[in-house]
Write a structure and sequence with these properties.
This protein folds into two domains: 59 residues, no CATH class; 77 residues, no CATH class. With 166 residues, the chain is mainly alpha-helical. Helix 5 crosses helix 6.
Length: 166
């Protein structure tokens, strides 16, 4: 996890697929207690002190469990998860001119491993990223005057997708 910009307050970058380690958590947990990092989040000293006080009184293990559940969303073992960019490429028929695959993305809570933090907010993040990538790919194809022959159906879209593009 690398800070945007030319600076990094955590030292060497932590790849997202390694963010679920105790070492990664400890680096970030410790960095959150420093004024250098807190100054990037809050401009007022008063708010920085409140965060620092909250962290000092917090149960680090409870936060670590939450952290791992979220970080495990980014763990990649090479064969069990599809990347959004690969799904979008399949939807738009990249590398496959004769036919397109039907892709079903199941965001339900059944079959979710117990070490994954999964709720409606996480579903929103995934859907938003997916829709953004599809839109970008469609706009790119349109600018190149390429044909688009894709149909995207989102079950329960009223719960997950915004009414207006952001």
């Amino acid at each position: 996890m690398k800070a945007k910009g030319s600076y990094s307050l955590l030292g060497s970058p932590i790849p997202p697929y390694q963010a679920n380690t105790r070492e990664a958590f400890n680096r970030i947990w410790d960095a959150l207690k420093t004024d250098n990092v807190l100054r990037k989040i809050y401009t007022s000293q008063d708010l920085r002190e409140r965060v620092r006080a909250s962290l000092e009184g917090a149960d680090e293990e409870d936060f670590f469990k939450i952290w791992v559940g979220i970080a495990n969303l980014f763990r990649f073992d090479g064969n069990s998860k599809a990347k959004i960019k690969d799904l979008v490429a399949k939807i738009h028929g990249v590398g496959n001119t004769s036919s397109q695959d039907i892709i079903i993305i199941d965001l339900s809570e059944k079959n979710v491993p117990s070490d994954i933090y999964w709720n409606d907010m996480m579903k929103l993040v995934v859907i938003a990223e997916f829709l953004e990538r599809i839109t970008e790919k469609a706009q790119e194809a349109y600018r190149k005057d390429e044909l688009l022959n894709s149909l995207v159906i989102i079950d329960e879209a009223h719960r997950l997708a915004p009414k207006e593009p952001s």
